[in-house]
Amino acid sequence: MTAQAAETEDLATVIGLEVHVQLETDTKIFCGCSTEPAEEPNANTCPVCLGLPGALPVVNEGAVEAAVRVGKAIDADIPEETTFHRKNYYYPDLPKNFQITQYDAPICADGELEFSVGGERRTVGIRRAHLEEDPGSLQHKGGSIDTADYTLVDYNRAGTPLMEIVTRPDFRSADEVRAFLAKLEEVLEYLGVFDSSRDGSLRVDANLSLVDADDVAADGTVDEAVLEAANRTEVKNISSHRGAEKALAYEETRQKNAIERGRAVEQETRHWDESKGVTLSMRSKEEEKDYRYFREADLPPLRVADWRERLAIPELPDARRERFQAEYGLSEEAASKLTSTKQVADFFEDVAEAFDPDLAATWVADELLGELNYRDMAVTDVADRFDEIERLVELVATDEITAKNARETVLRSMLDDGEGPDEIVEEAGLGKTSGDEVQQAVEAAIEENPDAVADYHDGEDGAINFLVGQVMGKTGGSADPGDVNQLLREELEG
Ligand code: ADP
Ligand code: MG
Ligand code: ZN
User: Does an H or E element contain 210, and which?
Assistant: First the structure.
Protein backbone atom coordinates (compact mmCIF):
# COMPACT_ATOMS: atom_id res chain seq x y z
CA MET A 1 0.00 0.00 0.00
CA THR A 2 1.54 3.29 -1.05
CA ALA A 3 1.32 6.45 0.99
CA GLN A 4 -0.90 8.32 -1.44
CA ALA A 5 -3.30 5.40 -1.65
CA ALA A 6 -7.00 5.62 -1.45
CA GLU A 7 -9.36 6.83 1.22
CA THR A 8 -9.44 4.43 4.15
CA GLU A 9 -12.96 3.24 3.37
CA ASP A 10 -11.57 1.78 0.15
CA LEU A 11 -9.23 -0.45 2.11
CA ALA A 12 -9.69 -4.04 3.22
CA THR A 13 -8.01 -5.59 6.22
CA VAL A 14 -5.91 -8.73 5.76
CA ILE A 15 -4.76 -10.76 8.75
CA GLY A 16 -2.75 -13.98 9.07
CA LEU A 17 -1.63 -15.67 12.29
CA GLU A 18 1.30 -17.66 13.56
CA VAL A 19 -0.01 -19.41 16.66
CA HIS A 20 2.35 -21.17 19.04
CA VAL A 21 0.74 -23.77 21.26
CA GLN A 22 2.45 -25.86 23.91
CA LEU A 23 1.72 -29.55 23.50
CA GLU A 24 0.85 -31.43 26.67
CA THR A 25 3.51 -34.09 27.10
CA ASP A 26 5.11 -35.39 30.29
CA THR A 27 8.62 -34.64 29.11
CA LYS A 28 10.31 -32.13 26.82
CA ILE A 29 10.57 -32.57 23.07
CA PHE A 30 14.26 -33.54 22.82
CA CYS A 31 15.18 -34.72 26.33
CA GLY A 32 13.64 -36.48 29.33
CA CYS A 33 13.19 -33.39 31.54
CA SER A 34 9.75 -32.85 33.02
CA THR A 35 7.42 -30.23 31.55
CA GLU A 36 5.61 -29.76 34.86
CA PRO A 37 5.97 -26.25 36.30
CA ALA A 38 8.85 -26.29 38.79
CA GLU A 39 9.15 -24.21 41.96
CA GLU A 40 12.81 -23.38 41.37
CA PRO A 41 14.17 -21.75 38.22
CA ASN A 42 16.34 -24.08 36.13
CA ALA A 43 15.25 -27.15 38.10
CA ASN A 44 13.91 -29.05 35.07
CA THR A 45 17.05 -28.93 32.96
CA CYS A 46 19.74 -31.25 31.64
CA PRO A 47 22.71 -30.99 29.25
CA VAL A 48 20.38 -31.26 26.21
CA CYS A 49 17.99 -28.43 27.04
CA LEU A 50 20.84 -26.32 28.42
CA GLY A 51 22.68 -26.76 25.13
CA LEU A 52 25.88 -28.10 26.71
CA PRO A 53 28.61 -29.32 24.33
CA GLY A 54 28.18 -32.87 23.09
CA ALA A 55 24.60 -33.29 24.28
CA LEU A 56 22.38 -34.92 21.65
CA PRO A 57 18.61 -34.54 21.13
CA VAL A 58 16.24 -37.52 20.95
CA VAL A 59 12.75 -36.81 19.66
CA ASN A 60 9.80 -37.40 22.01
CA GLU A 61 7.34 -39.80 20.38
CA GLY A 62 4.46 -38.33 22.38
CA ALA A 63 5.04 -34.87 20.88
CA VAL A 64 5.06 -36.30 17.36
CA GLU A 65 1.85 -38.23 18.04
CA ALA A 66 0.20 -35.06 19.34
CA ALA A 67 1.25 -33.22 16.17
CA VAL A 68 -0.19 -35.97 13.96
CA ARG A 69 -3.48 -35.79 15.85
CA VAL A 70 -3.57 -32.03 15.33
CA GLY A 71 -2.89 -32.66 11.63
CA LYS A 72 -5.85 -35.02 11.39
CA ALA A 73 -8.13 -32.61 13.23
CA ILE A 74 -7.33 -29.74 10.83
CA ASP A 75 -7.49 -32.01 7.80
CA ALA A 76 -3.85 -31.42 6.89
CA ASP A 77 -1.50 -33.42 4.69
CA ILE A 78 1.03 -35.40 6.68
CA PRO A 79 4.10 -36.30 4.62
CA GLU A 80 5.79 -39.70 4.44
CA GLU A 81 8.83 -38.21 6.06
CA THR A 82 9.36 -35.09 8.13
CA THR A 83 12.66 -33.40 9.02
CA PHE A 84 14.06 -30.96 11.57
CA HIS A 85 16.09 -27.82 10.92
CA ARG A 86 18.16 -25.38 12.93
CA LYS A 87 17.00 -21.78 12.99
CA ASN A 88 20.09 -19.80 13.94
CA TYR A 89 19.96 -16.68 16.08
CA TYR A 90 21.29 -15.39 19.36
CA TYR A 91 19.08 -14.59 22.33
CA PRO A 92 19.76 -15.25 26.02
CA ASP A 93 16.78 -17.62 26.32
CA LEU A 94 18.28 -19.85 23.60
CA PRO A 95 21.46 -21.42 24.97
CA LYS A 96 22.38 -23.41 21.82
CA ASN A 97 22.25 -20.28 19.65
CA PHE A 98 19.74 -22.07 17.47
CA GLN A 99 16.22 -23.37 17.83
CA ILE A 100 15.37 -26.83 16.55
CA THR A 101 12.32 -26.35 14.36
CA GLN A 102 11.02 -27.53 11.00
CA TYR A 103 11.45 -25.87 7.65
CA ASP A 104 10.70 -27.38 4.25
CA ALA A 105 9.11 -30.65 5.43
CA PRO A 106 6.77 -29.72 8.28
CA ILE A 107 4.69 -32.44 9.89
CA CYS A 108 1.41 -30.83 8.71
CA ALA A 109 0.66 -28.81 5.58
CA ASP A 110 -2.46 -27.45 3.86
CA GLY A 111 -5.11 -27.82 6.52
CA GLU A 112 -8.12 -25.74 7.48
CA LEU A 113 -10.30 -24.90 10.43
CA GLU A 114 -13.97 -23.98 10.41
CA PHE A 115 -15.49 -21.74 13.07
CA SER A 116 -18.53 -19.53 13.69
CA VAL A 117 -18.51 -15.79 14.09
CA GLY A 118 -21.58 -13.58 14.38
CA GLY A 119 -23.79 -16.50 13.34
CA GLU A 120 -21.77 -17.14 10.18
CA ARG A 121 -19.57 -20.12 9.34
CA ARG A 122 -16.03 -19.26 8.23
CA THR A 123 -13.14 -21.43 7.11
CA VAL A 124 -9.54 -20.33 7.41
CA GLY A 125 -6.73 -22.14 5.62
CA ILE A 126 -3.75 -23.44 7.57
CA ARG A 127 -0.57 -23.23 5.53
CA ARG A 128 1.48 -25.40 7.79
CA ALA A 129 1.85 -26.59 11.35
CA HIS A 130 5.24 -27.67 12.55
CA LEU A 131 7.00 -28.94 15.65
CA GLU A 132 9.66 -26.98 17.48
CA GLU A 133 11.16 -26.41 20.90
CA ASP A 134 10.16 -23.56 23.18
CA PRO A 135 13.03 -21.31 24.30
CA GLY A 136 13.62 -20.55 27.99
CA SER A 137 12.01 -17.54 29.63
CA LEU A 138 13.39 -14.22 30.81
CA GLN A 139 12.37 -12.34 33.93
CA HIS A 140 12.97 -8.61 33.70
CA LYS A 141 13.60 -7.24 37.19
CA GLY A 142 12.74 -3.70 38.16
CA GLY A 143 11.01 -2.82 34.89
CA SER A 144 9.99 -3.99 31.47
CA ILE A 145 12.14 -5.32 28.64
CA ASP A 146 13.70 -1.90 27.95
CA THR A 147 13.80 -0.42 31.47
CA ALA A 148 14.70 -3.39 33.72
CA ASP A 149 17.72 -3.15 36.09
CA TYR A 150 18.70 -6.67 35.18
CA THR A 151 17.22 -9.81 33.69
CA LEU A 152 17.16 -13.41 34.97
CA VAL A 153 17.14 -16.44 32.71
CA ASP A 154 15.13 -19.58 33.47
CA TYR A 155 15.53 -22.64 31.24
CA ASN A 156 12.68 -24.68 32.75
CA ARG A 157 10.57 -23.89 29.69
CA ALA A 158 13.42 -24.54 27.23
CA GLY A 159 12.56 -27.64 25.21
CA THR A 160 8.81 -27.68 25.92
CA PRO A 161 7.21 -29.04 22.75
CA LEU A 162 5.51 -26.37 20.66
CA MET A 163 3.44 -26.52 17.58
CA GLU A 164 3.52 -23.44 15.37
CA ILE A 165 0.33 -23.19 13.36
CA VAL A 166 0.57 -20.77 10.45
CA THR A 167 -2.69 -19.67 8.86
CA ARG A 168 -3.28 -18.27 5.42
CA PRO A 169 -4.02 -14.53 5.45
CA ASP A 170 -7.74 -15.34 5.37
CA PHE A 171 -8.99 -13.23 8.28
CA ARG A 172 -10.76 -9.96 7.49
CA SER A 173 -11.29 -8.69 11.04
CA ALA A 174 -10.05 -8.90 14.63
CA ASP A 175 -13.41 -10.47 15.61
CA GLU A 176 -12.75 -13.39 13.33
CA VAL A 177 -9.35 -13.91 14.89
CA ARG A 178 -10.81 -14.13 18.35
CA ALA A 179 -13.45 -16.65 17.29
CA PHE A 180 -10.84 -18.72 15.44
CA LEU A 181 -8.53 -18.87 18.48
CA ALA A 182 -11.38 -19.99 20.71
CA LYS A 183 -12.25 -22.74 18.24
CA LEU A 184 -8.62 -23.79 17.85
CA GLU A 185 -8.27 -24.17 21.62
CA GLU A 186 -11.51 -26.16 21.75
CA VAL A 187 -10.23 -28.61 19.15
CA LEU A 188 -6.79 -28.93 20.77
CA GLU A 189 -8.38 -29.60 24.15
CA TYR A 190 -10.67 -32.23 22.67
CA LEU A 191 -7.57 -33.93 21.31
CA GLY A 192 -6.08 -33.92 24.81
CA VAL A 193 -2.88 -32.26 23.55
CA PHE A 194 -3.33 -28.81 25.07
CA ASP A 195 -4.14 -27.14 28.38
CA SER A 196 -5.50 -23.60 28.04
CA SER A 197 -5.23 -22.99 31.79
CA ARG A 198 -1.46 -23.31 31.65
CA ASP A 199 0.27 -19.91 31.69
CA GLY A 200 1.63 -18.96 28.28
CA SER A 201 0.37 -22.12 26.61
CA LEU A 202 -0.87 -20.10 23.61
CA ARG A 203 1.10 -17.26 22.03
CA VAL A 204 0.19 -15.44 18.87
CA ASP A 205 2.11 -13.43 16.30
CA ALA A 206 -0.43 -11.51 14.26
CA ASN A 207 0.27 -10.11 10.77
CA LEU A 208 -1.88 -7.30 9.44
CA SER A 209 -1.90 -5.28 6.25
CA LEU A 210 -4.36 -3.09 4.39
CA VAL A 211 -5.04 -3.68 0.71
CA ASP A 212 -7.30 -2.01 -1.85
CA ALA A 213 -10.84 -3.27 -1.32
CA ASP A 214 -10.98 -3.78 -5.12
CA ASP A 215 -8.27 -6.42 -4.79
CA VAL A 216 -10.50 -8.64 -2.70
CA ALA A 217 -12.27 -11.08 -5.02
CA ALA A 218 -15.99 -11.82 -4.71
CA ASP A 219 -15.22 -15.04 -2.86
CA GLY A 220 -13.13 -13.09 -0.33
CA THR A 221 -9.72 -14.24 -1.55
CA VAL A 222 -6.82 -11.91 -2.28
CA ASP A 223 -4.31 -12.46 -5.03
CA GLU A 224 -0.86 -13.73 -3.92
CA ALA A 225 0.91 -10.86 -5.67
CA VAL A 226 -1.21 -8.32 -3.83
CA LEU A 227 -0.51 -10.00 -0.49
CA GLU A 228 3.18 -10.07 -1.26
CA ALA A 229 3.25 -6.38 -2.23
CA ALA A 230 1.31 -5.16 0.82
CA ASN A 231 3.41 -3.77 3.66
CA ARG A 232 2.46 -5.75 6.72
CA THR A 233 3.33 -5.50 10.37
CA GLU A 234 3.85 -8.52 12.56
CA VAL A 235 2.72 -7.99 16.16
CA LYS A 236 4.47 -10.22 18.66
CA ASN A 237 3.97 -11.02 22.32
CA ILE A 238 0.23 -11.65 22.30
CA SER A 239 -0.83 -14.26 24.82
CA SER A 240 -4.63 -14.34 24.83
CA HIS A 241 -7.65 -14.27 22.52
CA ARG A 242 -8.71 -10.94 23.90
CA GLY A 243 -5.15 -9.62 23.51
CA ALA A 244 -5.12 -10.70 19.86
CA GLU A 245 -8.39 -8.94 19.19
CA LYS A 246 -7.26 -5.74 20.91
CA ALA A 247 -3.79 -5.69 19.36
CA LEU A 248 -5.21 -6.17 15.86
CA ALA A 249 -7.92 -3.56 16.31
CA TYR A 250 -5.23 -1.14 17.47
CA GLU A 251 -2.96 -2.01 14.57
CA GLU A 252 -5.74 -1.65 12.02
CA THR A 253 -6.53 1.85 13.26
CA ARG A 254 -2.86 2.83 13.47
CA GLN A 255 -2.26 1.80 9.84
CA LYS A 256 -5.41 3.53 8.62
CA ASN A 257 -4.39 6.73 10.40
CA ALA A 258 -0.93 6.58 8.84
CA ILE A 259 -2.40 6.20 5.37
CA GLU A 260 -4.91 8.99 5.92
CA ARG A 261 -2.05 11.29 6.84
CA GLY A 262 -0.20 10.28 3.70
CA ARG A 263 2.47 8.27 5.47
CA ALA A 264 3.63 4.83 4.38
CA VAL A 265 3.11 1.82 6.59
CA GLU A 266 6.52 0.35 7.37
CA GLN A 267 7.03 -3.39 7.04
CA GLU A 268 8.16 -4.13 10.59
CA THR A 269 7.90 -6.24 13.70
CA ARG A 270 5.94 -4.64 16.54
CA HIS A 271 5.52 -5.52 20.18
CA TRP A 272 2.09 -5.68 21.89
CA ASP A 273 2.21 -3.85 25.21
CA GLU A 274 -0.71 -5.44 27.04
CA SER A 275 -0.75 -2.99 29.96
CA LYS A 276 -0.74 0.13 27.77
CA GLY A 277 -2.90 -1.41 25.04
CA VAL A 278 -0.59 -0.27 22.23
CA THR A 279 1.75 -1.83 19.67
CA LEU A 280 5.32 -0.49 19.61
CA SER A 281 7.92 -0.69 16.88
CA MET A 282 10.62 -3.29 17.72
CA ARG A 283 12.70 -3.73 14.60
CA SER A 284 12.45 -3.90 10.86
CA LYS A 285 11.11 -7.29 9.94
CA GLU A 286 13.69 -10.05 9.84
CA GLU A 287 13.75 -12.24 6.77
CA GLU A 288 14.08 -15.93 6.35
CA LYS A 289 17.62 -15.64 5.00
CA ASP A 290 18.68 -14.01 8.26
CA TYR A 291 18.24 -17.31 10.07
CA ARG A 292 20.60 -19.47 7.98
CA TYR A 293 18.28 -22.47 8.21
CA PHE A 294 20.02 -25.81 7.74
CA ARG A 295 19.20 -29.43 8.46
CA GLU A 296 19.55 -30.61 12.07
CA ALA A 297 22.16 -33.32 11.52
CA ASP A 298 21.65 -34.76 15.02
CA LEU A 299 18.10 -35.86 14.20
CA PRO A 300 17.50 -38.29 11.33
CA PRO A 301 14.45 -37.84 9.09
CA LEU A 302 11.36 -39.12 10.83
CA ARG A 303 9.16 -41.51 8.86
CA VAL A 304 5.55 -40.78 9.83
CA ALA A 305 3.98 -42.38 6.76
CA ASP A 306 1.62 -44.73 8.60
CA TRP A 307 1.08 -42.69 11.80
CA ARG A 308 -1.97 -40.96 10.40
CA GLU A 309 -3.79 -44.29 10.03
CA ARG A 310 -2.48 -45.67 13.31
CA LEU A 311 -3.52 -42.77 15.55
CA ALA A 312 -7.18 -42.22 16.33
CA ILE A 313 -8.76 -38.90 17.27
CA PRO A 314 -11.97 -38.43 19.27
CA GLU A 315 -15.20 -37.01 17.89
CA LEU A 316 -14.50 -33.26 17.50
CA PRO A 317 -16.73 -30.37 18.68
CA ASP A 318 -18.56 -29.73 15.38
CA ALA A 319 -19.44 -33.38 14.84
CA ARG A 320 -20.46 -33.77 18.44
CA ARG A 321 -22.63 -30.64 18.34
CA GLU A 322 -24.48 -31.96 15.30
CA ARG A 323 -24.94 -35.36 16.91
CA PHE A 324 -26.27 -33.77 20.12
CA GLN A 325 -28.87 -31.86 18.08
CA ALA A 326 -29.95 -34.98 16.20
CA GLU A 327 -29.76 -37.49 19.04
CA TYR A 328 -31.06 -35.46 21.98
CA GLY A 329 -33.20 -32.92 20.12
CA LEU A 330 -31.22 -29.98 21.49
CA SER A 331 -31.22 -26.50 19.98
CA GLU A 332 -28.03 -25.46 18.19
CA GLU A 333 -27.31 -23.00 20.99
CA ALA A 334 -27.66 -25.59 23.75
CA ALA A 335 -25.65 -28.14 21.76
CA SER A 336 -22.87 -25.58 21.18
CA LYS A 337 -22.67 -24.76 24.85
CA LEU A 338 -22.60 -28.41 25.81
CA THR A 339 -19.86 -29.32 23.34
CA SER A 340 -17.55 -26.37 23.92
CA THR A 341 -15.33 -28.56 26.08
CA LYS A 342 -14.99 -32.32 26.02
CA GLN A 343 -15.39 -32.44 29.78
CA VAL A 344 -18.79 -30.77 29.69
CA ALA A 345 -19.93 -32.86 26.74
CA ASP A 346 -18.91 -36.11 28.45
CA PHE A 347 -20.62 -35.04 31.66
CA PHE A 348 -23.80 -34.10 29.81
CA GLU A 349 -23.93 -37.51 28.14
CA ASP A 350 -23.48 -39.27 31.51
CA VAL A 351 -26.35 -37.32 33.04
CA ALA A 352 -28.54 -37.73 29.95
CA GLU A 353 -28.07 -41.48 30.08
CA ALA A 354 -28.72 -41.70 33.81
CA PHE A 355 -31.85 -39.51 33.79
CA ASP A 356 -33.14 -37.82 30.70
CA PRO A 357 -31.66 -35.54 28.05
CA ASP A 358 -33.93 -32.55 28.69
CA LEU A 359 -33.20 -32.58 32.40
CA ALA A 360 -29.50 -33.04 31.67
CA ALA A 361 -29.48 -30.14 29.22
CA THR A 362 -31.23 -27.85 31.68
CA TRP A 363 -28.96 -28.75 34.55
CA VAL A 364 -25.66 -28.82 32.71
CA ALA A 365 -26.08 -26.12 30.05
CA ASP A 366 -28.27 -23.64 31.91
CA GLU A 367 -27.97 -24.10 35.67
CA LEU A 368 -24.41 -25.36 36.11
CA LEU A 369 -22.70 -23.35 33.37
CA GLY A 370 -24.74 -20.28 34.31
CA GLU A 371 -23.78 -20.42 37.99
CA LEU A 372 -20.13 -21.13 37.11
CA ASN A 373 -20.04 -18.24 34.70
CA TYR A 374 -21.55 -15.93 37.31
CA ARG A 375 -18.74 -16.88 39.70
CA ASP A 376 -16.04 -16.60 37.03
CA MET A 377 -15.34 -20.28 37.49
CA ALA A 378 -14.52 -22.85 34.82
CA VAL A 379 -15.84 -26.36 34.46
CA THR A 380 -12.37 -27.63 35.29
CA ASP A 381 -12.84 -26.13 38.77
CA VAL A 382 -15.67 -28.57 39.50
CA ALA A 383 -14.55 -31.55 37.41
CA ASP A 384 -13.89 -33.56 40.57
CA ARG A 385 -17.44 -32.83 41.81
CA PHE A 386 -19.38 -34.18 38.84
CA ASP A 387 -20.67 -37.04 41.03
CA GLU A 388 -22.15 -34.53 43.46
CA ILE A 389 -23.75 -32.51 40.67
CA GLU A 390 -25.19 -35.69 39.21
CA ARG A 391 -26.60 -36.52 42.66
CA LEU A 392 -28.26 -33.10 42.73
CA VAL A 393 -29.92 -33.83 39.38
CA GLU A 394 -31.04 -37.17 40.81
CA LEU A 395 -32.68 -35.42 43.78
CA VAL A 396 -34.67 -33.32 41.31
CA ALA A 397 -35.40 -36.23 38.96
CA THR A 398 -36.78 -38.35 41.79
CA ASP A 399 -38.82 -35.44 43.15
CA GLU A 400 -37.03 -35.36 46.49
CA ILE A 401 -36.46 -31.63 46.26
CA THR A 402 -38.05 -28.93 44.13
CA ALA A 403 -36.21 -27.60 41.10
CA LYS A 404 -36.40 -24.16 42.62
CA ASN A 405 -34.65 -25.21 45.82
CA ALA A 406 -32.14 -27.25 43.87
CA ARG A 407 -31.24 -24.25 41.80
CA GLU A 408 -31.48 -21.40 44.25
CA THR A 409 -30.17 -23.06 47.37
CA VAL A 410 -28.41 -26.35 46.84
CA LEU A 411 -26.36 -25.68 43.70
CA ARG A 412 -25.36 -22.23 44.89
CA SER A 413 -24.20 -23.44 48.32
CA MET A 414 -22.40 -26.33 46.67
CA LEU A 415 -20.37 -23.86 44.65
CA ASP A 416 -19.96 -21.24 47.36
CA ASP A 417 -19.32 -23.43 50.41
CA GLY A 418 -18.11 -26.66 48.86
CA GLU A 419 -20.65 -28.88 50.63
CA GLY A 420 -22.34 -31.90 49.06
CA PRO A 421 -26.02 -31.86 47.99
CA ASP A 422 -27.35 -34.29 50.61
CA GLU A 423 -25.74 -32.34 53.44
CA ILE A 424 -27.22 -29.07 52.22
CA VAL A 425 -30.71 -30.54 51.77
CA GLU A 426 -30.52 -31.98 55.26
CA GLU A 427 -29.21 -28.82 56.93
CA ALA A 428 -31.61 -26.48 55.19
CA GLY A 429 -34.53 -28.88 55.62
CA LEU A 430 -35.30 -28.80 51.92
CA GLY A 431 -36.54 -32.36 51.56
CA LYS A 432 -39.97 -32.16 49.96
CA THR A 433 -42.63 -32.27 52.65
CA SER A 434 -44.37 -35.63 52.66
CA GLY A 435 -47.82 -35.99 51.20
CA ASP A 436 -49.47 -36.25 54.61
CA GLU A 437 -48.05 -32.98 55.84
CA VAL A 438 -49.11 -31.20 52.67
CA GLN A 439 -52.58 -32.67 52.94
CA GLN A 440 -52.84 -31.47 56.54
CA ALA A 441 -51.68 -27.99 55.56
CA VAL A 442 -54.26 -27.89 52.75
CA GLU A 443 -57.06 -28.81 55.13
CA ALA A 444 -55.88 -26.28 57.71
CA ALA A 445 -55.66 -23.49 55.13
CA ILE A 446 -59.25 -24.17 54.02
CA GLU A 447 -60.47 -24.28 57.58
CA GLU A 448 -58.74 -21.08 58.61
CA ASN A 449 -59.77 -19.00 55.58
CA PRO A 450 -63.51 -19.26 55.01
CA ASP A 451 -63.61 -15.93 53.14
CA ALA A 452 -61.10 -17.11 50.56
CA VAL A 453 -63.02 -20.37 50.18
CA ALA A 454 -66.21 -18.42 49.56
CA ASP A 455 -64.42 -16.23 47.01
CA TYR A 456 -63.17 -19.36 45.27
CA HIS A 457 -66.69 -20.70 44.98
CA ASP A 458 -67.79 -17.32 43.63
CA GLY A 459 -65.26 -17.83 40.83
CA GLU A 460 -62.61 -15.34 41.96
CA ASP A 461 -59.28 -16.26 40.41
CA GLY A 462 -57.06 -14.74 43.07
CA ALA A 463 -58.53 -16.85 45.85
CA ILE A 464 -56.78 -20.08 44.90
CA ASN A 465 -53.42 -18.30 44.73
CA PHE A 466 -54.00 -16.89 48.19
CA LEU A 467 -54.71 -20.41 49.52
CA VAL A 468 -51.64 -21.85 47.75
CA GLY A 469 -49.59 -19.14 49.47
CA GLN A 470 -51.02 -20.13 52.85
CA VAL A 471 -50.09 -23.78 52.30
CA MET A 472 -46.60 -22.88 51.09
CA GLY A 473 -46.17 -20.81 54.26
CA LYS A 474 -47.21 -23.70 56.49
CA THR A 475 -44.80 -26.11 54.76
CA GLY A 476 -41.84 -23.74 54.78
CA GLY A 477 -41.80 -23.48 51.00
CA SER A 478 -40.87 -27.11 50.55
CA ALA A 479 -44.11 -28.27 48.93
CA ASP A 480 -44.50 -28.18 45.17
CA PRO A 481 -46.83 -25.24 44.32
CA GLY A 482 -48.37 -27.12 41.36
CA ASP A 483 -49.22 -30.09 43.56
CA VAL A 484 -50.67 -27.80 46.23
CA ASN A 485 -52.86 -26.07 43.69
CA GLN A 486 -54.16 -29.44 42.52
CA LEU A 487 -54.82 -30.71 46.06
CA LEU A 488 -56.65 -27.54 47.03
CA ARG A 489 -58.95 -27.76 44.03
CA GLU A 490 -59.70 -31.42 44.75
CA GLU A 491 -60.46 -30.59 48.38
CA LEU A 492 -62.62 -27.56 47.51
CA GLU A 493 -64.57 -29.32 44.76
CA GLY A 494 -64.89 -32.63 46.59
P1 ADP B 1 7.29 -14.73 6.75
O2 ADP B 1 8.12 -15.76 6.08
O3 ADP B 1 7.66 -13.35 6.48
O4 ADP B 1 7.05 -15.03 8.20
P5 ADP B 1 5.00 -16.08 5.84
O6 ADP B 1 4.72 -16.24 4.40
O7 ADP B 1 5.55 -17.22 6.60
O8 ADP B 1 5.89 -14.82 6.01
O9 ADP B 1 3.66 -15.62 6.52
C10 ADP B 1 3.62 -15.32 7.86
C11 ADP B 1 2.21 -14.95 8.22
O12 ADP B 1 1.85 -13.73 7.60
C13 ADP B 1 1.17 -15.95 7.81
O14 ADP B 1 0.26 -16.14 8.87
C15 ADP B 1 0.47 -15.29 6.65
O16 ADP B 1 -0.88 -15.66 6.60
C17 ADP B 1 0.59 -13.84 7.00
N18 ADP B 1 0.54 -12.94 5.83
C19 ADP B 1 1.10 -13.11 4.62
N20 ADP B 1 0.83 -12.05 3.83
C21 ADP B 1 0.08 -11.19 4.56
C22 ADP B 1 -0.50 -9.90 4.32
N23 ADP B 1 -0.36 -9.25 3.16
N24 ADP B 1 -1.21 -9.33 5.32
C25 ADP B 1 -1.34 -9.94 6.50
N26 ADP B 1 -0.82 -11.13 6.78
C27 ADP B 1 -0.11 -11.76 5.83
MG1 MG C 1 7.08 -16.89 9.37
ZN1 ZN D 1 16.48 -31.42 29.49
Answer: strand 202-212
